[in-house]
Amino acid sequence: MKHADRNDEHVENAVWPLGKSAYPVAAPKGKLVDLNGKTIGELWNRVFRGEEIFPIVRAELKARFPGIRIVDYSHFGPTHGAGQDKALAEMPKLFAQHGVDAVISGIGA
Amino acid sequence: MRASVAAERAGLPAVSIIATGFLTQGVVVAKGLGMPDLAVAEYPGVPMTDAPQALAHKVSATLISQIIDGLTKTAAPAASDESVEPAARDTVFSGTLDEINEHFHTRQWTDGMAIIPPTVARIEKFLRYTDRDPDEVLGTCPPDNRLATVWSVAANGVMAGCKPEYMPILLAAVECIVDPEFRLQDAGSTPGWEPLIIVNGPIVKELDFNFGSGVMRAGRRANTSIGRFLKLFMQNLAGFRLLPGGGDKGSIGQTFNVVLAENEDACAELGWSTFGVDRGFSENENVVTVQSVVHISPPTYSAGAKAMDHMRVIHEVIGQNTMAYWSCIGLLFGKWHPLLLLGPSVAKVFAQDGWSKTQIRNYLHENVRLSAERLDAYARHCGMTGLSIKGQVEQGLLPPEYAQSDDPGRLLRCNIKPEWIGIVVAGDPGRNQSKCYVSNHVQGPPTSRRVVLPTRWKSMRAG
């Protein structure tokens, strides 16, 4: 430890108390050009009134994009709590099974 | 955000609906998972307090367009910090004690109290108390997802005011919290739970932990600095800093817990197993257990020479008045672990009256109950709008007895399994007081590790 004096006080060299990040930074996937004709999967953590919010979102999207198909959250597991890990692990298989093109996830509150 | 990241990793664009108050936490989670530019659609305000009409209006008027944009438009990348992060041994700041504290406070690398500067020399003193490589990775610390290393444990131990010989305890505690079953990523959830470290074994006396009067007060160095350490470590490695900018969403929160050390002499006198043995370890093995604590009972006084004299009060004050309310969340997630801290004199009455720890657990399991109607109501107020007792039974998370009837007045057991009730004997031996520490459902379940001492422990301690 190298010390120097500054007004009779020791000067010390402190190191960083954090650590390396476990994940490299990645950009999100490319977006969809148009939602018409696409299949959207809903993921819900089973909290914060998703049972009211998702149906409104569903209706609005169908009104604006008549060709849209929505696979509602009941087809996927809860994304929070006891079932979270299982749900996340099974997701790629379920996305493929339902032909999902994009995902809406909620409700973070 | 975690589900959106899972979708993105599966090759699909995703957008996350997040309420205003959680946007910062969402940013921390996304950044920690390596996707800082994930699309977000903001629900303005607090969904749990909006009238149905207001909720519908917000979704139609503001949320839907953000969802569409999130799936179809590429947002400008968030301003990224291009600077290379320091290596473990790099000096990040040189200065006096005051200057270093100011530098660290400004960057939220402290808990708001003064720290001991983490210098290489101080850290190396800690490293002498482990045989492990300083660069060994103990695990990942979500949501910030920084790697917990032996070195980072020592650095934060220095900062918290620990003694170097506490290092084996610090390592064991961190091993507990980086266990994926512990769900460290949820330690910033709104209930504002804190980790509680419980220490068992000869190390309790060797390192001078307090297990008597004021056991849960700050004051004794081992209890206090190690308790502070874990909170500081979670702040620095997992990112649980206060707003603005932090991942801690504890709505009101509480301060860190000092270490709870068990009075193992009292256990031996009663013929009771220690908490460490209850956790599956051998007698005389040094054990660290960490579990979440979301709230604590009143100091509960019970008097009398018979076990039931005490159990009646414990059932009422600790059971019905403390365990029952938050058990609604534990039941809906299928797991929770209350910890009963019995004063030695209270434990002695139970033992002398022939009660084992198992009987105490069984009594509370059988008799602490709440109506299904109240459990559902408490859970809904908390925001669990898509979960139900019946649904959890169907998923196998709760035993069938919870759905045997649709009568809202039926009384449900608040404790799912008697063995999930922990019992520790500690506190003032000259008084008749007990307390209960309630855990936060699946978040922070009791997680234990054996304390591994360095090969030269005895000579170092003697020297």
Dominant shape of chain B: flat
| Proportion of residues in helical segments of chain B | 25-40%
Structural class of chain B: alpha+beta
Helical percentage of chain A: 25-40%
State the helix count of chain A: 2
Distance between the termini of chain B: 52 Å
For the largest beta-sheet of chain B, the strand count, sense and barrel status come to: 5 strands, mixed
Enumerate the spans of chain A where pLDDT stays under 50 for 5 or more consecutive residues.
Answer: none
- Chain pair forming the biggest interface: A-B, 70 and 103 residues
Q: N-to-C SSE series of chain A?
A: EEEHEHE
Low-confidence stretches of chain B: none
Rg of Cα set of chain B: 24 Å
What is the secondary structure topology, with strand pairs?
The complex is a heterodimer of chains A (109) and B (463).
Chain A: E1 4-6, E2 9-15, E3 39-44, H1 50-64, E4 69-71, H2 84-98, E5 102-108
Parallel strand pairs in A: 3-4, 3-5
Antiparallel strand pairs in A: 1-2
Chain B: H1 2-9, E1 14-19, H2 23-32, E2 39-43, H3 52-72, E3 91-95, H4 97-106, H5 120-127, E4 137-141, E5 146-149, H6 150-160, H7 167-178, E6 194-200, H8 203-206, H9 221-238, E7 260-261, H10 264-270, H11 275-278, E8 287-293, E9 295-296, E10 300-301, H12 307-333, E11 339-342, H13 344-352, H14 357-367, E12 369-371, H15 372-382, H16 389-394, E13 411-413, E14 422-425, E15 433-438, E16 447-450, H17 457-462
Parallel strand pairs in B: 1-2, 6-7, 11-14
Antiparallel strand pairs in B: 4-5, 6-8, 8-16, 9-15, 10-15, 11-15, 12-13
Helix pairs in contact in B: 5-6, 6-7, 6-9, 7-9, 12-15
